[in-house]
Design brief:
mainly beta; single chain; five-stranded antiparallel β-sheet
Amino acid sequence: MAIINEKYLSAPLTLPIIVATLLISTSACSNQSVVNTNEDLAEYKTSDTNSSMSVDKPEFTTEIIATFNEPWAMAALPKADNAPQKILVTQKTGELFIVDIETGAKIAVTGVPKVAYGGQGGLGDVVIAPDFSSSNNLYISYVEAGEGADSNEFGAKVIKTRLMGLDTSTPSLQAITPIWEQSPKVKGQGHYSHRLLFSPDGQYLYISSGERQEKTPAQDMSVNLGKIIRLNADGSIPVDNPFLNDTNDIAKQFWTIGHRNILGMAFDDSGKLWAHEMGPRGGDEFNLIEKGKNYGWPLVSNGRNYSGIDIPDHDTRPEFEAPKITWTPVISPSSMSLYSAGTENDFPAWQGNVLISGLSSKALIVVSMNDDNTASERYRYDMGERIRSVLAVDGNVWVLEDGNDGQLLRLLPK
């Protein structure tokens, strides 16, 4: 049975809390073992000049639905009339669950491919195919290891698969079809990104591909690391992708280049694509993603290298697309979901805003996007734990805590 969790009671944001927040800095890396960088970031300021964080913000309590070990992503299954909402939850270690939101019951799905678990790698994102009601298809990302002598090299992979037995006690994945993979595989187990998002019309699949902590691949047109990928639903290349005439065939996949580690993407109500990106030491970004543009990593950043060596800011290189918001101290953004009222409208003040989950910030951040392509942080909620994922569906909101014994929580308006 669901339990009200009073430790997550939300309170109005006060000036001391704002000051304390601005004095705290942690690494933007999603790895919990990264050292604190307070001293290195003391001189930096948050560069969101449009910030309008309000003391008059909605408050909520939370309800515990279920508990997971190293959960990573959520996706809502279509809801039948008068039936309880069910969602899919992935765990990095390789498990996929169907969760009944009303009872908290979890059913494991069999047939998940073997994943290369370790560091930031493992089972990743899951999204529902636009034609799920007729096809039962899902798209899933995960990390796989190379073979033979390359078994110590890793890369993200995306598959299409059919979810069978949804309403039984033995659901399974069948008819697995490879859609895309990172190329090349490299050593190390960080910055896979591998977020998945369908366009509002259901025609195109967007995939975020991290630069694997190697920096330079983000500007290299011969590899698909450090890019946002745009494909048709069957994995083929859309005829209007921006780099179709590039001499490197792999570049035909690219929608944008120059990215570090994108863990959240969402379309707003007007059809614009937004993404957040982890900076190095400082400089987390919130970007408007536009066809064919270069976002500058690693040549520019509003953060600095982990070594302490500075990186030129975005305003020194106007040929690169600058973020609409940067955060220093960082928030370590881990996912993003657009809030839209539906059958329920638990948080009308959030309508049309995106909700961002924060790892090192242990926060839920609400950001508004404006008609003039600007954006600003509206609200920030201290959640007390690292938040791995947020999902807004039909006017309801769920969040997933990070790590072992990570709780799936529903937000309840006060």
